[in-house]
Design brief:
The protein is of the alpha/beta class. Helices cover about 55% and strands about 15% of the residues. It folds into two domains: about 160 residues, no CATH class; about 350 residues, NAD(P)-binding Rossmann-like Domain (Rossmann fold, 3-Layer(aba) Sandwich). The strands form four sheets. Strands 3-2-1-4-5-7-11 form a seven-stranded parallel β-sheet, sandwiched between helices. The longest helix has about 40 residues. The protein is elongated and about 115 Å long. The structure holds nicotinamide-adenine-dinucleotide. The site of nicotinamide-adenine-dinucleotide has 28 residues, from strand 5, strand 8 and helix 16. Nicotinamide-adenine-dinucleotide (NAD) binds next to strand 5, strand 8 and helix 16.
């Protein structure tokens, strides 16, 4: 049975149980009201013959109970109380239920007095039964709430610290630049890691850990809900790094970018929420600040200048709108990353300029007065780990800029830092850049709340890249495997397009007539 059919069956069963519960409330209220009335008449000696009184009450009960049951059920369902998918919620739903039941009792009372052939029961009995039914409905609501909280808390508790180790972390898009730095750290700490990635940039970034017993690989497109649902099983935390990353890569195909970066994020979060996964860590970017001359903190106005940044703003918004006591997203706005990892990218300014300096003897700078905050890839991975291990109350629904105040540099300063390590390279200034990004970011929040202190300075990261190139570990920084936009404009984008709709193309191919 598919997921929507299962959901419809579950909702149908829920409505049937609700009907049963309401019948029990009305009938119990009537029985108790008749019993109270009976004992009142006997103890106050208004009636002496208890046996005849008992039988009269029993007859009264039998004659009226089915009418009240039926009227209550009809009015409750007309009010939408049992509608599958339930648009009525919480306190409002209880009020609507009490209103429907009250109308049913009033109609019964009126009919009982106005119609001669209608069953007669003492006014005290139906008024008492009316009150009791309302009380039972309120108690039922309170119980459902307390029970729901208890179940959620116990499952949330189980999820944060399962007995069999440090918990299972689903890392979506974990075979990329940041993911390949993060995964070894998670495994070292004893987490079970489920890596969900379609390996757009190959297996090379995670080659060294593929045989680790704590790692499971799900090679799939994260827009496929069935694969996401399957991968979410027994997961304690979700870290969502997967995206089309970077302004040029996102500009290749706007529709695809929105699907991958935004729509899939929403679907993944909803699945996580459905599974009761509370901790959801989302990779956002400081690019959301776009172009600004201010020092920008998490509350500053956003001024995105690309679809990439807009897709991240929209994703943050979607995640925060899904937040509730059982779903606690945290968004990490990383600065511009530099340094080496399992998948070093050379489409990012520091790595690219360092490589050009060593291999071409030139450091070409566009827009040398534009500010950017820089962050080493290992520190980015460390910030994810800190977020994962911080008390949930501290990260719940929070946005953190990830970086270091002292690592805001202009692109001109970056060029000088590189030249200091590769003195023979000359700086070539090309004036203004088409990339209008310019932002200086305040990182006090992550430092004070999570105690985040990066371990690499920009100069250390440049040294790391320069030495790797000098050792011959990277010979051609222009190779498309180092650049998101190059991979995606070659075969990556078509893999993504086919990845989503491949089944349809396959069926169409199969349906083509076979040549006679
Ligand atoms: N690198 C940076 O400078 C930087 C800066 C700020 C924010 N970020 C954010 O950090 C996250 C990781 O960045 P990165 O540099 O590691 O990116 P990356 O491009 O190196 O890795 C992205 C990963 O996502 C996977 N992926 C993409 N679409 C997929 C799909 N539909 N199904 C399955 N897998 C898919 C790719 O295979 C890849 O392994 C991204 O969300 C990015 O926006 C990165």
């Amino acid at each position: 049975m598919d997921i929507s059919a299962q959901r419809a069956t579950r909702l149908g069963q829920g409505a049937a149980l609700r009907v049963l519960a309401d019948l029990i409330f009305v009938n119990s209220a009537l029985i108790v009201a008749f019993a109270l009335h009976f004992f009142y008449l006997i103890t106050t000696r208004i009636e002496a013959d208890s046996s005849s009184l008992f039988w009269r009450h029993a007859q009264g009960l039998v004659s009226c109970v089915w009418i009240l049951d039926l009227t209550c059920l009809v009015l409750l369902s007309v009010s939408g109380f049992y509608s599958v998918g339930g648009h009525l919620r919480g306190r409002y739903k209880t009020l609507v239920g009490i209103q429907a039941v009250s109308i049913a009792y009033l109609l019964f009372g009126l009919a009982s007095y106005a119609l001669t052939d209608f069953p007669k029961i003492p006014a005290a009995v139906w008024i008492c039964a009316w009150g009791l039914t309302a009380i039972l409905m309120v108690l039922d609501r309170l119980w459902a709430r307390l029970w729901g909280n208890a179940v959620h808390q116990s499952s949330a508790h189980r999820r944060v610290r399962p007995e069999d180790g440090r918990g299972r972390v689903l890392v979506i898009g974990g075979a990329g630049y940041i993911g390949s730095a993060l995964l070894p750290k998670l495994l070292e700490k004893g987490y079970s890691v489920r890596l969900f990635d379609m390996l757009l940039y190959g297996t090379e970034p995670v080659e060294g850990i593929l045989s680790h017993p704590g790692l499971e690989l799900v090679q799939a497109d994260f827009r496929h809900i069935d694969r996401v649902v399957e991968a979410m099983r027994d997961v304690d935390v979700v870290i969502h790094l997967g995206a089309i990353v970077g302004d040029p890569a996102c500009a290749l195909d706007e529709e695809l970018t929105i699907e991958v970066n935004l729509m899939a994020t929403r679907m993944i979060a909803e699945v996580a929420k459905g599974y009761g996964v509370q901790r959801f860590i989302f990779a956002s970017t400081c690019s959301v600040y776009g172009a600004s001359d201010e020092l920008l903190d998490e509350g500053s106005a956003l001024n995105p200048v690309s679809l990439y940044a807009r897709s991240k703003i929209a994703s943050e918004k979607v995640l925060m709108s899904l937040a509730d006591p059982y779903f606690a997203p945290a968004c990490l706005r990383f600065g511009t990353i530099f340094g080496l990892s399992g998948r070093t990218r050379f489409d990012l300014v520091v790595n690219l300029l360092a490589a050009k300096a060593v291999l071409d003897g030139e450091i070409t700078v566009f827009g040398s007065d534009q500010w950017r905050p820089f962050l080493h890839v290992d520190d980015a991975a460390h910030s994810v780990l800190l977020t994962l291990e911080a008390p949930l109350a501290v990260t719940r629904n929070q946005v953190f800029n990830v970086g270091f105040d002292e690592q805001n540099y202009t692109l001109g300063q970056v060029a000088q830092l590189i030249q200091a390590q590769v003195p023979r390279a000359r700086i070539v200034n090309h004036g203004h850049d088409s990339d209008r990004r310019n932002y200086r970011v305040d990182f006090r929040k992550i430092r004070s709340v999570l105690g985040f202190v990066p371990s690499f300075t920009l100069a250390q990261g440049i040294a790391q890249v320069v030495q790797a190139i000098q050792r011959g570990e990277v010979t051609d920084y222009r190779d498309s495997k180092y650049s998101n936009v190059k991979v995606l404009s070659e075969e990556g984008a078509s893999r993504l397009v086919l990845g989503q709709n491949g089944w349809a193309y396959e069926l169409i191919r199969e349906a083509a007539p076979t040549p006679a």
